[in-house]
Amino acid sequence: MFNFVLRNRHLFRGKLKKEVFDFNTSIAAFRDQCEAGAARFWRIPEGITIREATMAMDEIVAFIKKFL
After folding, report:
1. pLDDT digits (tens, 9 = 90+) for 1-60
2. Range of the domain at 23
3. I need a surface site. Which of 1, 4, 8, 26 has the fewest CB within 10 A?
4. What are φ and ψ of residue 6, in 5° steps?
5. Helix, strand, or coil (residue 67)
6. How many helices (H) and strands (E) does the chain have?
7. HSE (CB half, 13 Å, CA atoms) of 5?
8. Which of 12, 45, 55 is nearest to 4 (CA)?
């Protein structure tokens, strides 16, 4: 059921064709769409903040090696 809803979410927005995501797609619009969908299902508890962060490739490799 969940897989069906995820694959066919465009139908629930009244669109017959899926949206194509490529390099010309607006990242800001996509982020707004994701945030709107997430807001329907879950609220961030008070006292918790989300901030943007970047990781260097060596940090990512070190993080992954912890689990191998």
Report:
1. 777 877 887 787 787 887 777 888 888 888 888 888 777 777 777 888 888 877 788 888
2. 2-65
3. 1
4. -65, -45
5. coil
6. 4, 0
7. 3
8. 12
